[in-house]
Amino acid sequence: MDKGLNESRKDFPILDQQVNGEPLVYLDNAATTQKPNQVLTAILNYYQADNANVHRGVHTLAERATDRYEAARDKVAAFINAASRKSIVYTRSTTEALNWVAASFGNLVVNEGDEIVISQLEHHSNIVPWQQVAQKRHATLKYIDLTKDGELDMASAKRQITDKTKIVSIAHAANVMGVVNPIKELAAIAHQHGAYMIADGAQAVPHMKVDVQDLDVDFYAFSGHKMLAPTGIGVLYGKQDLLEMMPPAQFGGEMIDFVHHQDASWTQLPWKFEAGTPNISGAIGLASAIDYLNQLGMANVQAYEREIVAYTLPKLLSIDGLTLYGPSDPNKHTGVMAFNLAGLHPHDVATGLDMEGVAVRAGHHCAQPLMDYLNVTATARASFYFYNTFAEADKLVEAITAVKEFFADGIS
Ligand code: PMP
């Protein structure tokens, strides 16, 4: 299969362009994915035909906009197998979802002397909000270590999660190490100790079938823009009883039941959390993205990514001087592949690759504690999605070799 899954590339006109005189090879999908025509058309169609503010209006357009916005919520609920649409709260992003859980739920349940457990491979958006809770509540923030291969060390997890733990919050799929973490197992351990389990699904939901009930997570966060939808729309899933308990993070229109001069009461779930005019077109774009992914089938998306990783990873590992972060076994590695080249700064590597038309990311990937743990300041990172081809994987490998040679010539 050399054309990307189901020849889907034709739906992504952005991929059909030249960069620096070379065909674009877009391998920065962990940062954000491209958007298919179907999603762009759904958003355009909404603005051309149905645009109005939601919930408040009784006129026809307002009803249509509300219906589309709420139908999108049902689609999200089904996509992650939530038990109820009331469990699906729209947010701006994973970052906002995790901030809301930390500030509203974390501050409610974490008390002095309690512990919050995260891991060494987290993104800043699953670290900094918990630091804030720990500081405010005089709690301790603890880290689960990684194995030599870069996987979560479950022996360390069992040591760190204790009866003092109130919150365990872990990435479902890692944005640098390219591993999938055993969230179901972690949730069981957390629950045995009376703690709540939160998962950061930003790198998981776009790439595999996620079933929040099967995982038995208490909260789960993800972003639309990493799964074909526009920026500015994300999701916080929460178990209904916990969302009932959790105070709103923002206040204003739409989220109230009744406002008196001195106080107010909140409306029901999920609107209690959605203050102000929401990102209506974003939700509609997200629903269209879910339709697109459902049509491909998440099992097919995952299987194709596995194939392309199995093809690419050994080639990367055979490049002299290349250090891969995360497992070298392709069966354990997702389409996120972080690496460094001996003697070269990852920014130079990424700039060199861009000259070859290959778009990868370089930097700390919002994971500075992980960089510290790995004893590096930064890495380059190539990240694949279902529309990437095997020919593009070859181009990545060729371009890395060309960059190495360019700098070797320049230095010698
Ligand atoms: N968590 C992980 C694992 C991520 O990869 C990202 C995005 N790089 C985020 C959280 C934050 O996502 P967003 O910027 O969409 O809020």
TrEMBL record:
SUPFAM superfamilies: PLP-dependent transferases
Keywords in alphabetical order: Pyridoxal phosphate, Transferase
EC number: 2.8.1.7
InterPro entries assigned: Aminotrans_V_dom, Aminotrans_V_PyrdxlP_BS, Cys_dSase_SufS, Cysteine_dSase, PyrdxlP-dep_Trfase, PyrdxlP-dep_Trfase_major, PyrdxlP-dep_Trfase_small
EC top class named in words: transferase
Domain Aminotransferase class V: 25-396
Domain of life of the native organism: Bacteria
Pfam family, one: Aminotran_5
Requisite cofactors: pyridoxal 5'-phosphate
Catalytic activity: (sulfur carrier)-H + L-cysteine = (sulfur carrier)-SH + L-alanine
PANTHER family assigned: CYSTEINE DESULFURASE, CYSTEINE DESULFURASE 1, CHLOROPLASTIC
Family: Belongs to the class-V pyridoxal-phosphate-dependent aminotransferase family. Csd subfamily.
Summary of the function given for this chain in its UniProt record: Catalyzes the removal of elemental sulfur and selenium atoms from L-cysteine, L-cystine, L-selenocysteine, and L-selenocystine to produce L-alanine.
Protein name: Cysteine desulfurase
